[in-house]
């Protein structure tokens, strides 16, 4: 367990309350993303994504080195993933939207892991067939977001293990149970599937190097909650002859209830990409906010946008225009904007997004196969 502050716990499976992100950087030992790294990227992309400007992506390891590798012509790739425990929610798509932007701007291939095995091992009950089905459902979201099928290669653990196992055997030998316990809080009663699982999440970081038979530097854009895997991956990479994978970490979109990230374990406070627009509107209208209990008090005292999940939805996903975001922030703080109004506008934007996204998801059913790694590459081989 990684305790970020007295109130906040962040692990790959749990993140409570509004997290103290600066403290998390110190505990995890990553670096804050500064203007230096952002400008380095800008020197290639020509523009900066709002998620960088707003420090939604806010921490990194070797992001600067990764950009230098890219500039010097070393082969580079992106890697991210999803544990398909259910349908995709708006928190999950946050790193994928940014990953798509990076893919487009840098022309990079993306390796995307769907960990149906992890979610099966982690669940109480459940069946692997269902998590596998959800993996395919979640691919529709990647397609709807516009990730390039020619450059996006999805590995579904339960079906594509041949791509990972030649790497996993070497990775597994380097990791002790003691390391696992320290990094993930495993105990004597954790099932051995979970104990083995991190080996697979780490192995994908080295897959591009194996597939291309040359050094490939990998950048992992993902939530900060996934960081424990990368610390281990970076420690063991040099001893196996791989580059240390770089990371760029995003903050977690809060759920619409009191505290906690948007999470599949609290479906009533999460908006899923498959929610009917009307359902999503209802969830937003019922959302907890940083506002005062009455309109009178709100006008008098103003609200607290820094601790408001509705404001965070604008900041992290639904307001591209910096000036408009700033105006909303001030209008909330000064009491000029009431929560009802703010929620109604958000509900309209979210409903519009969902309608469009769902039409694209439907269209993607006919070309899911184009994303599957097994249709594009042969697995790496131990026997050379
Ligand atoms: P999973 O399915 O929990 O999360 C998928 C991605 O979404 C991010 N995320 C969020 N980002 C912002 N706000 C939130 N509320 C929020 N909730 C989740 C996660 O950080 C992650 O980037 N074990 C992984 C699957 C995986 C993976 C990877 C993830 C395999 N390989 C490589 C990232 C990178 C998992 O269960 O993710």
Descriptive account of the structure:
There is one protein chain. The chain is α/β, with parallel strands linked by helices and 384 residues long. The protein has two domains: 3-256, Rossmann fold, CATH 3.40.50.620; 267-364, Tyrosyl-Transfer RNA Synthetase. Helices cover 48% and strands 11% of the residues. It has helices spanning 21-28, 35-45, 50-53, 63-71, 90-106, 116-122, 128-144, 161-173, 177-184, 192-203, 207-212, 227-236, 277-285, 295-301, 309-318, 322-333, 339-364; strands at 10-11, 14-15, 31-32, 57-61, 76-82, 109-114, 152-156, 217-223, 246-250. The strands form two sheets. It has a seven-stranded mixed β-sheet, with helices on both faces. Strands 1-2 form a two-stranded antiparallel sheet. Strand 5 (76-82), helix 5 and strand 6 form a beta-alpha-beta unit. The protein is globular, with a radius of gyration of 21 Å. The model is unreliable at 1-8 (pLDDT under 50). Tryptophanyl-5'AMP (TYM) binds next to strand 5, helix 5 and strand 8.
Fold blueprint:
Blueprint: E1 10-11, E2 14-15, H1 21-28, E3 31-32, H2 35-45, H3 50-53, E4 57-61, H4 63-71, E5 76-82, H5 90-106, E6 109-114, H6 116-122, H7 128-144, E7 152-156, H8 161-173, H9 177-184, H10 192-203, H11 207-212, E8 217-223, H12 227-236, E9 246-250, H13 277-285, H14 295-301, H15 309-318, H16 322-333, H17 339-364
Parallel strand pairs: 5-6, 5-8, 6-7, 8-9
Antiparallel strand pairs: 1-2, 3-4, 4-9
This protein binds tryptophanyl-5'AMP.
Residues 12, 79-83, 91-92, 94-95, 113, 115, 118, 201, 204, 220, 222-223, 225-226, 250, 252-253, 261-262 line the site of tryptophanyl-5'AMP.
């Amino acid at each position: 367990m990684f305790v970020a502050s007295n109130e906040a716990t962040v692990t790959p499976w749990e993140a409570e309350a509004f997290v103290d992100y600066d403290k998390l950087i110190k505990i995890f030992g990553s670096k804050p993303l500064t203007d230096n790294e952002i400008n380095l990227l800008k020197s290639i992309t020509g523009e900066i994504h709002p998620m960088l400007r707003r420090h939604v992506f806010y921490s990194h390891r070797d992001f600067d080195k990764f950009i230098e590798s890219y500039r010097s012509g070393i082969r580079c790739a992106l890697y991210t993933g999803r544990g398909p425990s259910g349908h995709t929610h708006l928190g999950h798509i946050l790193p994928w939207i940014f990953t798509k932007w990076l893919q487009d701007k840098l022309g990079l291939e993306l390796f995307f892991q769907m960990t149906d095995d992890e979610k099966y091992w982690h669940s109480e009950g459940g069946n692997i067939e269902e998590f596998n089905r959800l993996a395919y459902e979640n691919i529709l979201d990647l397609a709807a977001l516009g990730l390039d099928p020619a450059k996006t290669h999805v590995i579904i653990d339960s079906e594509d293990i041949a791509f990972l196992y030649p790497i996993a055997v070497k990775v597994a030998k380097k990791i002790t149970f003691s390391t696992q316990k320290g990094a993930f809080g495993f105990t004597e009663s954790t099932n051995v599937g979970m104990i083995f699982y991190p080996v697979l999440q780490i192995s994908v970081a080295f897959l591009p190097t194996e597939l291309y038979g040359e050094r490939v530097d990998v950048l992992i854009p993902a939530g900060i909650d996934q960081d424990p895997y990368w610390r281990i991956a970076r420690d063991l990479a040099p001893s196996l002859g791989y580059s240390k994978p770089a990371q760029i970490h995003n903050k977690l979109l809060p759920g619409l209830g009191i505290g906690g990230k948007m999470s599949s374990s609290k479906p009533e406070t999460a908006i899923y990409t498959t929610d009917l627009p009307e359902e999503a509107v209802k969830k937003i209208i019922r959302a907890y906010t940083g506002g005062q209990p009455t309109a009178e008090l709100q006008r008098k005292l103003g609200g607290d946008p820094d601790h408001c999940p509705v404001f965070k939805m604008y900041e992290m996903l639904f307001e591209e225009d910096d000036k408009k975001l700033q105006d909303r922030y001030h209008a909330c703080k000064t009491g000029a904007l009431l929560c009802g109004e703010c929620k109604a506008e958000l509900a309209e934007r979210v409903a519009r997004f969902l309608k469009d996204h769902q039409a694209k998801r439907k269209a993607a059913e006919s070309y899911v196969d184009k994303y599957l790694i097994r249709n594009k590459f042969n697995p790496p081989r131990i026997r050379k």
